[in-house]
Write a structure and sequence with these properties.
- This protein has 74 residues and is an alpha+beta fold.
- The protein is built from 2 helices and 3 strands.
- The chain has a domain at 1-46: Rhinovirus 14, subunit 4 (Irregular), CATH 4.10.80.
- The chain has helices at residues 42-45, 56-67; strands at residues 10-17, 22-27, 31-34.
- It starts with 9 loop residues before the first strand and ends in a 7-residue tail after the last helix.
- The relative contact order is 0.14.
Length: 74
């Protein structure tokens, strides 16, 4: 490893989330502000929402049925 070209490593850097949770993780910065963490992310908290609330598959199937069946010409 070359001398004087690498940034300073802080083994106990403080990561602070917007929800107020703090983590001590190694980083090249002393303090880092993040918007989302494991305590407030919907995947980890179990409050995940599905995006198919409008019934996109049903809409597609109804458009397909309305278009009718096309036959191939020879």
């Amino acid at each position: 490893m070359k001398a004087d070209i690498h940034p300073t490593y802080y083994p106990d850097a403080v990561f602070t989330c917007a929800c107020g949770a703090t983590y001590s993780i190694g980083s090249t910065k002393e303090a880092v502000q993040v918007e989302i963490c494991a305590k407030c992310h919907p995947f980890y908290t179990g409050t995940e929402k599905t995006l198919d609330s409008a019934g996109r598959v049903d809409k597609f199937n109804s458009r397909k049925a309305a278009a009718g069946v096309k036959t191939a010409k020879k």
